[in-house]
Amino acid sequence: MSQFNIDEDIEEIAGGEFERAPVPSKKRKGWKSFLGMYAGEHAAGTEFMIGPLFLTAGVSAFDLIVGLLIGNLLAVLSWRFLTAEIATKYRLTLYYHLEKICGKKLVTGYNLANGILFCFLAGSMITVSATAVGIPFAIEMPRLSDTMPNGVTWILIVVAIGAVISLIAARGYDTVSKAANWMSPSIVIAFLACGIVALNQLGVKSFTDFWNIWGSGSEPFPGQIKYTFWHVVLWSWFANAAMHIGMSDLSVFRFSKKASSGWTTAAGMYVGHYMAWIAAALLYAVYLRTPEAQAFLSNGEAPPVAPGPLANNAIGIFGLIAVVLAGWTTANPTIYRAGLAFQAIIPKVSTFWVTIIAGTVATIAGIFPAFAMKLLGFVALYGFILAPFGAIIVFEHFFAKRFGIQSFYAELTKVSFNVSVLLAWGISFGIFYTISEVFDVFLSFVTLPAWLCCGALYLIFSKIFQSKQTKRIQESTG
Hints:
Layout: H1 3-14, H2 31-42, H3 45-56, H4 61-90, H5 94-102, H6 104-133, H7 152-170, H8 173-201, H9 207-212, H10 229-238, H11 250-253, H12 265-288, H13 291-298, H14 307-315, H15 317-345, H16 351-367, H17 370-373, H18 375-403, H19 409-413, H20 419-438, H21 443-476
Helix pairs in contact: 2-8, 2-12, 2-15, 3-6, 3-12, 4-10, 4-12, 5-6, 6-7, 6-14, 6-15, 6-16, 6-18, 7-15, 7-16, 8-12, 8-15, 12-14, 14-15, 15-16, 18-20, 18-21, 20-21
């Protein structure tokens, strides 16, 4: 039996997810599998939160409509020409790929941070679903300023939803993909229906009426920051920075037959991050005209953003079902990614059980509404933290030979801690996070500079630290 077949049999016993081996050809999937997953994941729970949050940030019509067009295009290009290209060449998970570069000890810290941040993101989507399930129970919906759960009923609802989502994610990529393909069409239809109904409720009769919903923008709501055109462009580009330029979706596209499957992310960006965000913003615009919302504003408070009631007001029970499913289709692949991160730390534990662990952490996070209510800021932060590690992979892939450094250095030399990676990430993070804090610069504005800086520093430090070791390797191999 060949080594390849031995590895394949081991992976099948471990759950068939190929966490520490390239995905074999017979397990690779066509573009349709990714189309459904990305349409489902990105026309999903986050969209019910993000659309309204843009309104709370006082965006103008031009900033929102044109800014989203450009920002989402940049995201698609990042997935297609960076993530999918590298994924289909090596066919490794992000975590195993990084381990080969960083070493076991260093990548363990990254995997832990990555997994926890993904769990928090998934938890916010469980919160979104809970706002729909909670309506029949007449629970008080969380406000933008809320951090703690508001009752036992809320906690029980979140736990029940989290348990179902975790079990789906724990069954592996095939189940996650099938669930997304099944759910996404109804969710997309629901978003479209919500937008059409909201336009009617707002009395929109022409494009001018539609444009005037945002007009030239407004002052941000209490506790929110003002978003300009560049806020929208850069935030929408880097909303999924951890997945594309951060290379997390290596774990997804390693199953793809061709790198061209990266174009399927456009279904998520333009159905989800464009149509759905705008549709959700329209729902919130309707709510802002109600006496309840006006009362909040008159008291100097931001009206709550609760997707369940917003969708229910537009299309009734179908809206509630769509919100629940939307939360699932985001949380499912996010928990799956988090499970892979934890599995890289504890490889002897099956993928099923580490995903259950990830789902449990996500469920606990979902109990606290702060992650969902502060989603714009949280997404910017986790992308800023994780994306520079993707630069390590990208710069090594494209520039290692040209710069004269050894690829997969930790694997080759058996080092467990590649200091070049830590220095590159630590310096870039420190410089640009300090700039953000000291000069009050929005984090999405410094994500790309931090990413480029990290990649460049990695090449420089690798050139310095590898020179002697690489020379010995080359001499020993003739």
